[in-house]
Amino acid sequence: MRSLTLRSTWPWMGGLSALLTGYVACVDYIEPAPLTPTPPVEVVLDEDAEIPRSPAPEAGGEPPRDASRLPDATDAQVVYPVPPPLTGGHVYYTYDRHVHRIAATPGAVPENISTALDRFGAAGEDVRITASRDSRWMLLDSERFGGCTDTCLVLVPSDLSRVEVVRPGGRAFTPEGISAISAGTGALIVYPAVGGPHMVDLFATRREGGGWSAPTLLTGASTYPFNNMPALTFDGTKVTFDCGQNPFPETGNNDACEVGVDGAGFRRLASSNMLPNARQTHVQNPHWGLDGLLFEAAWPVDSGDPQVVLRPEIIWRLPGDGGLPVPHQRFDNSVAPCTMPDGRYAFLWLGSPNNVNGDHELAVSNREATSAFVLTPKVDVTDIGIGCAD
């Protein structure tokens, strides 16, 4: 079992092995036994599916349950209604190989999404959860569903009524980092994967009937070999992402870039050479908010005392109307920002009050970045990206 506790490995642990093993066929939807009677749904069968059937049950026994396929082992595409939105702000995060959702209010109790998905009949690891802007849809990487070489990208509606293995062009895949999904009907997904002209590229897939379209390359014009960690803008027309010369952003030469969801308009938004006296050659985790682009980068102030350990990173803001980045706040040692539609933002705070162990505590700041509160005290959230939504 691989570890997800080191920041130096988080963006690219997903599936470079896919280069050797290729894609695998998986079913689209996995449903548990209904908890209550449900209305009929339209099912479109894929006659070309080549998924082996489960062994026949013993006389008088129950069929064996395999959470990676439907009971009849047929590749099915099921059309479901759009789930309800959530309101008030929510944050999505990974901890201890489980994914969680929590309201962005002081004292909120986190909801273990992984535990809620246990009723689908599989055990395993879930990581890298994000959500659409309206919280109707969640995306996560899971080794529990689909049978990918490492983890499959899985779509879960806000009401937790089902799970769907995302298969662009009919093929499941292992993402290379966190993914993004549009609001409303959730008809657009942007994800990082191998197989493009660079070491890692961003691709888009769109809902087509009950399935997903063949992938569209978005970062073909990128001048960087590694393109990862996409985040959609609030209007859903563009995506920001890490763009770098190395697989690990913190090893240096990592910038913040942007491209349209149609693959047009690639540009660099921010880089370390835009910062005053930058101590490190990387910026990362860019997200557009109401007041500009937020990202994490090193704080350039030298303590002047070699015995004093510097708190290395804070959140910066690139004004939307132009200019150079400025420190958005000076919450000591804060990383991994994501923005909410109401102007607030969440981040991981290693220097929060009473945080003697330097845990990655999940926190929420007001829009002005003058005050913040901790959502997960004494919990070391896995630093592989977090998600913000309504």
> Radius of gyration in whole Å, from Cα?
21 Å
CATH class: Mainly Beta
Which CATH-level-2 architecture?
Answer: 6 Propeller
The fraction of residues assigned to DSSP E strands is 25-35%
Query: What is the residue-averaged pLDDT?
Result: 81
Q: Indicate the CATH topology.
A: Neuraminidase
Describe the structure.
The chain is mainly beta and 390 residues long. The protein is built from two helices and 28 strands. Helix content is 2%, strand content 34%. It has one domain: Neuraminidase (6 Propeller).
Write a concise synopsis of the structure shown:
With 390 residues, the protein is mainly β. The protein has helices at 18-21, 113-116; strands spanning 29-30, 43-45, 76-78, 90-95, 98-103, 111-112, 126-131, 137-142, 152-157, 163-165, 180-181, 188-193, 201-208, 211-212, 216-217, 226-232, 238-244, 254-260, 267-270, 283-289, 292-298, 313-318, 326-327, 334-339, 345-349, 361-365, 372-374, 387-389. The chain has one domain (12-33, 82-389): Neuraminidase (6 Propeller), CATH 2.120.10.30.
